[in-house]
Structure formats: C-alpha cells, structure tokens
Amino acid sequence: MNPVINVLMKRRSVRAYQAKEISAEIRAEILKATFRAPTAGNMMLYSIVEVTDQKIKDRLAITCDHQPFIARAPLVWLFLADYQRWFDYFVACGVEALCEQKQVLIRKPEEGDLFLACCDALIAAQNAVVAAESFGIGSCYIGDIMEQYEIHKELFNLPQYTFPIALLVFGYPTPEQMKRPYTNRFDEKFILFENQYHRLSQEELAEMFAEREHQMSKGKPQEGITNFGQAMYFRKFASEFSMEMSHSVRLILKEWMG
C-alpha cells in the first residue's frame, strides 16, 4: 500500500500515552510538515502556541470539558485562527493613512476573514497530525478549546483577531491504545454526492445509522432513550458543553467584529 495512505488509514485518536518524550528532531520535522500545509494566499493565517507549562496543561485538562489526558500529553499545540498579525502589519505599513488619503474607510477583519483563517489553521493542524502519525506518534483533537472563551482568552493573552479553533495533543500511544478497534466511518454513499447536495430520506438515514443503532442496542439502556439519534442529541448536540461552546463562539464573534 502507498505509505501515505497507510499512515492515514492507521490513524486513530489517542488519549493515553507512554512516558516517552518526543525528541526535538522529530518535533522539528512535524513542525516543518505543518508549515507546508495549503494556505490562503500564502498568508498562513494561523499561529501555534506550544504549551510547555504544566500548570497550563493542568488548567486545560479542566477547562476543556474535564479531560485529564491533556495534562499528561508530552506535546500540546494550540492552533489559532490569526488575522491579528496581518492586520498589525497593514497598520505598520501605513494603510490607515493611505485609506484616509484615498478617502475610503479602512476595512478591519470580518466574518469571512475569520472563517478563512479557521480553514488555514485546521488544514495546518491536520498536516501536523499526519506527520506525527508517520513517526508513530498519536494525537487527539480537542474541540473543547472553543469553550470557556473568557478563561482561554486570558490564559493565552489572545488579542482581538485570534480564535482558538483547535487544541492538539500528541504522544506515543500505549500498547492498549493500539489494540482498540477502529471506529467505523459512514458509507461514502451517504457523504459523497455528485454535483448537488442530496438530503437523505428517512429510509436512507435509517440505513446510514443502522450499525450504530446495533452497537447501542448491545450497551446499557438509557432511561427514556429509544434510539441512537435521541442518545446523540442529548449526549452531544444539546449537552452543556455544546451550549457553552456556542456561547463562547458568540462572544468570540462579537469581539472579532468589535
């Protein structure tokens, strides 16, 4: 098999790590691969904060929905969507005075710029994940970094035009982690469409989730829950952490837009 495809197919989220540090040489290779990620206009609209302070790791393990393994990860990278650097550069280059001369209002970063910077940051993060996997180093995305914005803004001294879009933790997986079964993905017919979006019918949705319904039926019954959709609604979509994430994102958008 193509070695790149092999790396991608073997990858899984890893939440338990050996007591083994990631060497400076391997870290440097992962970082170089990260910086080679596709980027809008070659602008690299992201920044990476490497978390080395154990006290900050311990804090993140609590603020990111109480996940203790974050504190034990040998390498922790926070990926920020970042337009602050470019806007500061525009100001440093005299754009404000030039706009005044041209009698036009200076444009500040808006919603579209935020989304573009989020894309840049996440593409770079995935390059880091794949590069790490090629060295036998596992990783896990922590989307919960988007929660508790007030805390994380202060913790990382985040300026206006930055957004903590993803936290990545890395480490060599324990043997037990490697024995875990892979989580099946949905069949491509439910995900890949030709030319136009296809909204799934009830019959197609039932087929799509049949395996997960079956897996759920083998577990412990949940009070009042009769199917996988209900379980996921309350476990994920309508959960406290999901609502906190939406609250934080609203705050981030409000701050971004001034």
Task: Tell me what the structure shows.
The relative contact order is 0.16. Helix 2 (24-35) crosses helix 7 (111-134). A four-stranded antiparallel sheet has the order 1-2-4-3, sandwiched between helices. It starts with a helix and ends with a helix. With 258 residues, it is of the alpha+beta class. It is 50% helix and 11% strand. The protein has a domain at 3-181: NADH Oxidase. It is globular, with a radius of gyration of 21 Å.
**What is the subunit arrangement here?**
single chain
Going by CATH, the homologous superfamily of the domain at 3-181 would be NADH Oxidase
Distance between the termini: 51 Å
Number of strands: 4
Helices and strands, in order, run as HHEHHEHHHEHEHHHHH
Spatial order of the strands in the main sheet? 1-2-4-3
Any idea of the CATH class of the domain at 3-181?
A: Alpha Beta
Determine the CATH topology of the domain at 3-181: NADH Oxidase
Q: Provide the structure class.
A: alpha+beta
Low-confidence stretches: none
